[in-house]
Amino acid sequence: EVQLVQSGAEVKKPGESLKISCKGSGYSFTIYWIAWVRQMPGKGLEWMGIIYPGDSDTRYSPSFQGQVTISADESISTAYVQWSSLKASDTAMYYCARRDASTTDDAFDIWGQGTMVTVSS
Amino acid sequence: SYELTQPPSVSVSPGQTARITCSGDALPKQYAYWYQQKPGQAPVLVIYKDSERPSGIPERFSGSSSGTIVTLTISGVQAEDEADYYCQSTDSSGTYTVVFGGGTKLTVL
């Protein structure tokens, strides 16, 4: 079964750092882009950026450039997004999603279950 | 920055047809995709390349495109179709930038 499994919920304080993960299985992880998508409470989907695990080519949304770092470790089929200094406004559900350039012509066809990040003092 | 515009809400009775629109200047040149998100769940792809349906998605879901507007149509709406629906595309500037519409809450009366 093709799936993306994300790390568990996190509760952090402002100013703390955080790295959450997204592990792919059931397919060749290195040849599909992985995107990260933010969903703030009660709000819509926002694209954060995307990475190609095969060579770590990374693109960021202008809104998230400099705010987060996206990375991947192809040896363990895992993508990451990290924050160096969290803010309360980072409180949100974060999803990873696979971009399928072949069958669905660049749709996000597989999604992780989401990781809830809560930042509160 | 590039934007996709959706109506905030659409309401239909069971068995009727729901139409959700998404407008954007680059849609004549870029494909659109539609995702369904039910409360507490991750989004699910329901339409890709404007009008193609992934395997496992019911035939009552269809998509169409006309100029700067794409439309998700759900024929014979069922109670289980109540969800938020998001369109998604990319801009046409040459740099890969993904954009989601603001989402449409479909209510089945």
Characterization of this structure:
- The complex is a heterodimer of chains A (121) and B (109).
- With 121 residues, chain A is mostly beta strands.
- Helix content of chain A is 0%, strand content 53%.
- Chain A is built from no helices and 11 strands.
- Chain A is globular.
- Chain A starts with a strand and ends with a strand.
- In chain A, 37% of the residues are buried.
- Chain B is globular, with a radius of gyration of 13 Å.
- In chain B, strand 7 (83-90) and strand 8 (98-100) form a beta hairpin.
- Chain B is built from no helices and 9 strands.
- The model of chain B has no long low-confidence stretch (mean pLDDT 96).
- Chains A and B meet through strand 5 and strand 10 of A and strand 3, strand 7 and strand 8 of B.
Shape designation of chain B: globular
Distance between the termini of chain A: 40 Å
Per DSSP E runs of 2 or more residues, the count of β-strands of chain B stands at: 9
Overall pLDDT score of chain A? 96
Percentage of residues in helical conformation of chain A: under 10%
- Report the span from N to C terminus of chain B: 36 Å
Q: Give helix % range of chain B.
A: under 10%
**Contiguous helical run count of chain B:** 0
Summarize the entry for a quick read.
The complex is a heterodimer of chains A (121) and B (109). With 121 residues, chain A is mostly beta strands.
Jot down its keywords.
heterodimer; A: 121 residues; mainly beta; seven-stranded mixed sheet; four-stranded antiparallel sheet; B: 109 residues; six-stranded mixed sheet; three-stranded antiparallel sheet; 9 strands; globular
Outline the secondary-structure elements.
The complex is a heterodimer of chains A (about 120) and B (about 110).
Chain A: E1 3-6, E2 10-12, E3 18-25, E4 33-39, E5 45-52, E6 57-60, E7 69-73, E8 78-83, E9 92-100, E10 107-111, E11 115-119
Parallel strand pairs in A: 2-11
Antiparallel strand pairs in A: 1-3, 3-8, 4-5, 4-9, 5-6, 7-8, 9-10, 9-11
Chain B: E1 9-12, E2 18-23, E3 33-37, E4 44-47, E5 61-66, E6 69-74, E7 83-90, E8 98-100, E9 104-108
Parallel strand pairs in B: 1-9
Antiparallel strand pairs in B: 2-6, 3-4, 3-7, 5-6, 7-8, 7-9
